[in-house]
Design brief:
Blueprint lengths: L5 H14 L18 H14 L3 H4 L6 H14 L1 H16 L6 E10 L8 E2 L7 E9 L5 E8 L8 H12 L7 E4 L6 H9 L3 E4 L14 H10 L17
Parallel strand pairs: 1-5, 5-6
Antiparallel strand pairs: 1-3, 2-3, 3-4
Helix pairs in contact: 1-5, 2-4
């Protein structure tokens, strides 16, 4: 099953290949092992991003996991990954755009079987190692930023760094943006933090049952169910904005 349909991946790869510098191959004996085509590696990397799987899971006879890592690092050093990201974000802004008048933030806990610098004891997995991902999304559920912390950390302290990360990636949240949160964030301190940023708090009340649709935070619940899957490592910042 392809990660993206051809009508999406074809124009993206065309833009990407145009960013790659000319590569001269001049082997004196002419019998060197041929280089894996860029298109093969590109599709594999897209699969890793879309499916959230490790490189060795998608490696096969056409391309090894080592080649994926080496080519990825090569493209990063050349700056073509950043250039492609900017081109994709510009196209997204032009054709669709973010809806930043409403923002939702929430956390989800995932496994961290290999530990990591921010992993901690998971309160929902018999004390095994885990991480907590705090994600901010726009009104349509598009991730705009996020941070990670130990699985046993409370949600509310992660709110400020999550909003800061999102603000940096989208070029600043508009003043008067409504931030939708569940009752785990219901405190005067949370409201003060949002007020200092010029944001409006929309928080479910503690001790009062409220339906998921009572506020506009359901979009982050949906996003978390799609993106917060068990992982094998724990970087300090994991959720990269897909749009700005």
């Amino acid at each position: 099953m392809p990660a993206l349909p051809p009508y999406l991946i074809e124009p993206i790869f065309e833009q990407f290949s145009a960013l790659l510098p000319e590569r001269e191959v001049d082997h004196p004996l002419g019998c060197h092992r041929p280089r894996i085509p860029d298109r093969v590696v590109f599709e594999k990397l897209i699969q890793a991003l879309v499916f959230g799987c490790a490189y060795h899971r998608i490696a096969d006879e056409s391309c090894s996991a080592t080649t994926l890592r080496d080519r990825r690092d090569e493209w990063i050093e050349l700056g073509v990954i950043d250039a492609l990201r900017e081109a994709v974000l510009e196209a997204y802004d032009r054709f669709i755009g973010l809806e930043l008048s409403e923002v939702a933030v929430d956390c989800c806990i995932t496994k961290a079987p290999r530990g990591g610098e921010v992993a901690g004891r998971s309160p929902v997995d018999r004390g095994k190692r885990g991480i907590k991902r705090s994600t901010a999304v726009d009104a349509e559920g598009i991730p705009i930023g996020g941070v990670t912390g130990p699985a046993n950390r409370h949600d509310s302290p992660l709110l400020a760094p999550t909003l800061q990360h999102a603000s940096e990636l989208v070029g600043g949240l508009p003043e008067g943006t409504s931030v939708h949160l569940d009752r785990g964030y219901d405190s005067d301190l949370t409201r003060e933090r949002l007020e200092k940023r010029g944001l409006i708090s929309e928080i479910s009340k503690k001790g009062k049952p409220s339906a998921l649709g009572a506020t506009k935070r359901w979009v982050v619940e949906w996003t978390s169910s799609e993106f917060c899957t068990p992982c094998t490592n724990t970087p300090t910042l994991t959720v990269t904005a897909v749009a700005r």
